[in-house]
Amino acid sequence: MWWLSAGTFFVSLILTRLWLGLQERRNIGQPIRDYGPEIHTHKKGTPTAGGLSLILAFLASVGVTIALQGTLDTKVLCVVGAMLGFALIGLVDDGLKIFQRDSQGLAGRYKLLLQCAVCGVFTGIALSLQAVPPVKVPFIDGAFVFSPLLTIGLIFLVFVSTVNAFNETDGLDGLLGGVTLIALGAYGVILYLQNELALLSVVLLAAMALLGFLWWNVHPAKIILGDTGSFALGGLVGALALVTGTALFLLLIAIIPLLETLSVIIQVISFKLFKKRVFKVSPLHHHFEKAKGVDYEFYLPNQEWPEVLITLRFWIIAALGALLALLAYR
Predict the structure, then answer these.
(1) Which of 39, 45, 51 is nearest to 101 (CA)?
(2) Res 282 pLDDT > 70
(3) What CA–CA distance (Å, rounded) separates 44 from 80?
(4) I need a labelling partner for 156 at 20 to 30 A (CA). Which of 103, 120, 244, 308 fits?
(5) Which residues, other chains included, contact 228 with Cβ-Cβ below 8 Å and sequence gap of 6+?
């Protein structure tokens, strides 16, 4: 299957180049959110929704794999279906941003409502196919056997938190792509140990599609993931956590998205209670960026690193978290 993996990479590479070229010719791209301080004004107009090209490459390869094998693994169905469902929500959001030329996109309450709808569909399919095993405990040879009601709650919690955490992480060139590749590498090892070879091949194809996209997304990015990509990748990793019984391991495997989300929560609570910010700007990666127009106090010391340095250091932390998760799994 090496030829299919290589083909996935090149198809993603080519589709992404065609997609960004089309947006450049049509003079459409990413609107920039007004944070107050100037951070990403230079990225205004960058082609967006790059996740669309990598998803198409991935789905085509999965289709070829299913055709060659002649069977459809139930866990593969759940994982691919979840990824596609959340990708469609992101695509609607990106489409509104592009055509309305506004960074608002789909209102938060509608995003959450649609996310819950995808969770509901996944829950129905996964429970009927018994695709969600007991939840393993890190560093302990044991697992929690949840009741159906608690399993439903777990599914909703994992998906909503993971998808939105991945969305928060998508803010620097190549950041989320690299973090996701590291997470997929960790899940590749876990799936090998679980002898889930059909799902392992799917993870490999997803990684190759993501690599093809990253060719154009690393600094300086020619195209960005958009919500189409960040939602899809969050859905993919969340689904892998559920079908492998490793939801608790996400705290380490997805440590960067976790820290990004916690920074937003801390920032909001601090400002509401004390009228003072902890970070220069949240999510966390913005605190380390160069920003103009910061005319307020914040608790942490100011940091101004080059964008590439922030990305590489966050990748290192993500790799350490993934390695620790694998040690915890063993």
Answers:
(1) 45
(2) yes
(3) 32
(4) 103
(5) 49, 50, 51, 52, 55, 87, 90, 91, 93, 94
